[in-house]
Amino acid sequence: MSQARIRVAVAGASGRMGREVVKMVLADPELELVAAVARSTSGIDAGRMVGVEACGVEVTQDLELALVESKADVLVDFTAPQSAASNTRLAIRHKVRPVMGTTGFTPQDIEELDKLCKENGIGGLIAPNFSIGAILMMKFAAQAAKYMPHVEIIEYHGDQKLDAPSGTSIKTAELISQVRGELRQGNPKEEETIEGARGGYYDGFRIHSVRLPGVFAQQEVVFGAFGQTLKIRHDSYDRAGYMPGVAVAVKKVMTYEGLVYGFEHIMD
């Protein structure tokens, strides 16, 4: 007897990442698209919307109604930071496992949502980045920081990105801080003659956010030591590159309880 497919709802389905998620779910034999939600689009078949055959799932605007009617197992959310936490709470309330690619969660949000997931007996995931290469970049950076604690992060995104610094750079900084501890770098008498020139401050080091048209997603972690530097860089060129990670997350979130912050924690 064949195993039942995982029923997936997608929030932000008409967005650039959401469309890739819809295509990925429709192409994966272990997954079933049961709902597609988008604030700006409705009444169109989700398959047609992403340029493939009609799938029989109509895009709607009401997330809660879609979750209830579709009996989804998992919600994949690529919406906006302003709605991320409320969408997660909504999903958990209906015992739908949230897989959140949207950033903007505070540590207090994460603690609260973890408790809610455990109370409802379901798993959840918040992942600033689903790219396998980006996760490896973070892991390598954390290892390097043990031996080369002087570090700065430079992240590059398109000029329409809403948050700065990126969720990926913040997650990288958190992983570095876990092994490095706070260390004030540079000249103690350093003075910015233009405010913000040295970037954002995090546990003694700096994060620099570049926003330009024509850029997709890049991050460089630069380490400096006497007589040498080390640069660990990851470049993303296409949103489809995130989809293998999203597929892994959807399947893995069915196997545990509680909220996990960071895709690296569920990688085999």
Write the layout of secondary structure elements.
Elements: E1 6-11, H1 16-27, E2 31-37, H2 46-49, E3 59-60, H3 63-70, E4 74-77, H4 81-93, E5 97-100, H5 107-120, E6 123-126, H6 132-145, E7 151-157, H7 167-180, E8 200-202, E9 205-211, E10 217-225, E11 228-236, H8 243-252, E12 258-261
Parallel strand pairs: 1-2, 1-4, 2-3, 4-5, 5-6, 6-12, 7-9
Antiparallel strand pairs: 7-10, 8-9, 10-11
Helix pairs in contact: 1-8, 4-5, 6-7
**Helix/sheet category:** alpha/beta
What is the correct CATH architecture of the largest domain? 3-Layer(aba) Sandwich
How many distinct beta strands? 12
Mean pLDDT level: 93
**CATH topology (level 3) name of the largest domain:** Rossmann fold
- State the shape: elongated
Most strands sheet: 7 strands, parallel
Strand order of the largest sheet: 3-2-1-4-5-6-12
What level of helicity do the residues show? 25-40%
Give the ordered list of helices and strands: EHEHEHEHEHEHEHEEEEHE
Rg measurement, Å: 20 Å
Q: What is the assigned CATH homologous superfamily of the largest domain?
A: NAD(P)-binding Rossmann-like Domain
N- to C-terminal separation?
27 Å
Low-confidence segments: none
Count of DSSP helices?
A: 8
| CATH classification, class level of the largest domain | Alpha Beta
Q: Which range does the strand content fall in? A: 15-25%
Instruction: Give the count of structural domains.
Output: 2
Keywords: Amino-acid biosynthesis, Cytoplasm, Diaminopimelate biosynthesis, Lysine biosynthesis, NAD, NADP, Oxidoreductase
Main location: cytoplasm
Protein name: 4-hydroxy-tetrahydrodipicolinate reductase
Pathway: Amino-acid biosynthesis; L-lysine biosynthesis via DAP pathway; (S)-tetrahydrodipicolinate from L-aspartate: step 4/4
